[in-house]
Design goal:
alpha/beta, Rossmann fold, two-stranded antiparallel ribbon
């Protein structure tokens, strides 16, 4: 049976906690393989000062190799960094690959013009407009913790649980009852169905 692949983009200063529930859940509950890559394939330091050794460098990543690509937040997005992945992300979008961005990574998708026909969210509308002066897709902005539309999933920086939930739902991870149980467990700590 073919396994699906999730590629997680790593860079110095990435917000290590934001993709954690997603990657742990995909590894535990699905056939997804989790693979990581950084711009040059060298180790990176997360925002929490964890040293992470990626599996691949950017130039080795091909859109035929994955079903999902995750862009975690981090200050580098706000500083205009990580532009080296622009081509990969545009090609991924054009080829219907699922792109999941959380926190400041949502600004990168706006800079790439990927919200023109896609509902999306971020760390607030004013934040998005400030970070991306050319942003013109306000009519498609949804003021919710996490939004999934077509092949784009976006979340604000405080919505790690909702981010994971929407990704699981998008890919049919867990049955509906199990998925609701998972959501309730992480949202309230309760074992309620």
């Amino acid at each position: 049976m073919k396994k699906r692949s999730c590629y997680l983009f790593l860079f110095d200063g990435f917000a290590d906690w934001e993709p954690s529930l997603v990657t742990a859940g995909l590894k535990t509950y699905s056939d997804f393989e989790i693979k990581t890559f950084s711009p040059n394939g060298k180790s990176v330091k997360s925002m929490g000062n964890l040293t992470v050794n990626p599996d691949f460098k950017l130039e080795d990543v091909k859109i035929t190799d994955f079903d999902l690509i995750i862009l975690p937040g981090g200050n580098k997005w706000e500083e205009g960094g990580n532009t080296e992945i622009s081509e990969l992300i545009k090609d991924s979008f054009d080829n219907g690959k699922t792109i999941a961005a959380i926190c400041a990574a949502t600004t990168f998708l706006a800079k790439q013009g990927l919200y023109s026909n896609t509902k999306h969210t971020s760390n607030g509308l004013e934040y998005l407009k400030k970070q991306v002066p050319g942003y013109v897709d306000e009519s498609r902005y949804i003021n919710e913790p996490c939004v999934s539309d077509k092949n784009i999933i976006t979340a604000n920086g405080a919505a790690m649980i909702e981010f994971a939930y929407k990704i699981f739902k998008h890919f049919g991870i867990l049955q509906k009852k199990e998925l609701i149980f998972w959501l309730n467990l992480y949202k309230s700590g309760g074992m309620v169905y």
